[in-house]
Sequence to fold (240 residues):
Amino acid sequence: MSDLTLKVIIDSEEQIEFLKRQGYNLFLARLVSGRDKANVIWKSHPDFTYANRFRWKPVYAISGSVSVGVRTLVEGSTKVKPIEPGQSIEINEWGNMTNPDGSAVPGKAFKLTNKDPNTNFSAVVYTVDPATPDGTPLTPFYISGLLPRTFPVEITPIDNIVVVWFGQAQETGTIIADYSGPHFTVVYDKEQTKHTVQWTKEEGWQLVDDLKNIKETSQSGDVRRIAPSNIFTLQSVPQE
Fold:
């Protein structure tokens, strides 16, 4: 899949000021197959403005972690190694992450095996910025449960879905149990690699098709809308 782009519009200056005064960040998260919710904040954006643009490629890396806990930051305990869908990798008996093995197969799972008899590891999956010479920065977006010994665990990132929401300030890479505010799920396909969502106090999250007509559609109500029941207002704000 090619580059994906998400533009987040906050249509009210009042809402921008209010959300910042309340200490909220704009969050993005990614999913893996078999889970209906993310468990790591992929991007935390405290300095949001009227228009906020995010762009990424489905390029991944993986590590092992021995430190897992809600509201803590993901921390890799092994070296981080690049990996492609369809490849296998293992943590060897000495606790080192090996190089990936096998051919890349788009849409297939990674396979990770823990062969260290003395250490409990979880898997951490990262997105990688392929435009940088050394493949950084690495941004974690998923952490697994404890890996069983010697048995391969399959992890399949979902390339075409991203989740967006506002919540009390937390850092990129924070492990979460749930979304801390009304959230919106954006789905891409081969023909649609760019999306714009809009947040309004009255309507919540909206998917806006035509960027040139945001103001007009917002006033007329002619938009596609997926809004939760509890939306941000000056009287009612979701709490952590």
Remarks:
- Residues 212-240 have pLDDT under 50 and may be disordered.
- The radius of gyration is 19 Å.
- The chain has two helices and 16 strands.
